[in-house]
Amino acid sequence: MDLEKFFDTVCQSKLSQVLSRTIDDGRVISLISKYQRAGVVEDGMFARTEVGVAQGGNLSPLLSNVMLNELDWELDRRGHRFVRYADDLMIFCKSRRSAERTLANIIPFIEKKLFLKVNRDKTGVAHVSKVKFLGYGFYRYKEKCRLRVHPKSVAKMKQKIRVLTARSNGWSNEYRAMKITQFMRGWVNYFKLADMKRLLMETDEWVRRKIRAVYWKQWKRVRTRYKMIAKYGLPEWKVHELANCRKGVWRAALMLNSVLTNKEIVSLGFITMTDYYLKVA
């Protein structure tokens, strides 16, 4: 389940009512209300905030959890097993019929009691193996549910790497290595709970080939290629063969395995996702 434009649609009067149950000091409630109605500046223009909580505001994550805590208690009262992160929610049921009944019964509470709107396009009943939650997917192994990286998250990761290894951005190799390393570490740290060793090994192989393609493109002329390849101590005939290669960049990158080896690429400042995953997971 997903709540549509959650931060923009929180009912401020309902939120004040919820806060008043546990906060006795009216001055605190008043201060929070003023904070909510303070308005925002967008593109140099002031906009009033009569509804919702400001995204990015200091209090917004806390206030949103205060509001959705009402939903947590209601689900717990009804005996449901669930997990929620901000406005993303999963409710677990034993059968499809039970799940459909639960969905039909909980939507009225959310929309009529909490005055929030359920995003029908992103809400539905599905087997856990088909669900994407916070970028993770799920699968069963030996009667246990385990985590994997959802295919959509993998596609986004590869698209980001394509941008970072683009040969037209004018980056130095040192800066490119730093940016790729930062992204890989952040991505692996986020998904480190998932079983993804094989995925990372395949991705590392693909990334190394893209890095070799970057270097091959930089060595534009035969003379430059000859000079750079000769540094690695290959036989003369092999240097001559590689330097005069007329294949496309992607195929030529595959031939550079004997020059820019895996160890050499690491020495240039690039890391492997697999090694980092095994270190932190």
Task: Tell me what you see in this structure.
The chain has 13 helices and 6 strands. The mean pLDDT is 88. It has helices at 6-9, 12-20, 26-36, 60-77, 96-113, 151-164, 173-190, 197-218, 222-230, 236-243, 249-255, 262-267, 273-280; strands at 40-42, 45-47, 81-85, 88-92, 136-141, 144-149. Helix 2 crosses helix 4 (60-77), helix 7 (173-190) crosses helix 13 (273-280) and helix 8 packs across helix 11. A hairpin with a 2-residue loop joins strand 3 (81-85) and strand 4. The strands form 3 sheets. The chain has a two-stranded antiparallel ribbon with strand order 1-2. Strands 3-4 form a two-stranded antiparallel ribbon. Strands 5-6 form a two-stranded antiparallel ribbon. The protein is elongated and about 85 Å long.
Q: What is the topology?
A:
Layout: H1 6-9, H2 12-20, H3 26-36, E1 40-42, E2 45-47, H4 60-77, E3 81-85, E4 88-92, H5 96-113, E5 136-141, E6 144-149, H6 151-164, H7 173-190, H8 197-218, H9 222-230, H10 236-243, H11 249-255, H12 262-267, H13 273-280
Antiparallel strand pairs: 1-2, 3-4, 5-6
Helix percent reads: 40-55%
Poorly predicted segments:
none
Helix-strand topology string: HHHEEHEEHEEHHHHHHHH
Average pLDDT value? 88
Largest sheet report: 2 strands, antiparallel
What's the alpha carbon Rg, rounded to whole Å?
A: 27 Å
How many beta-strand elements? Answer: 6
Strand order of the largest sheet: 1-2
Distance between the termini: 29 Å
| Structural class based on helices, strands and sheet pairing | mainly alpha
Secondary structure tally, helices? 13
Assess the beta-strand content as a share of residues: 5-15%
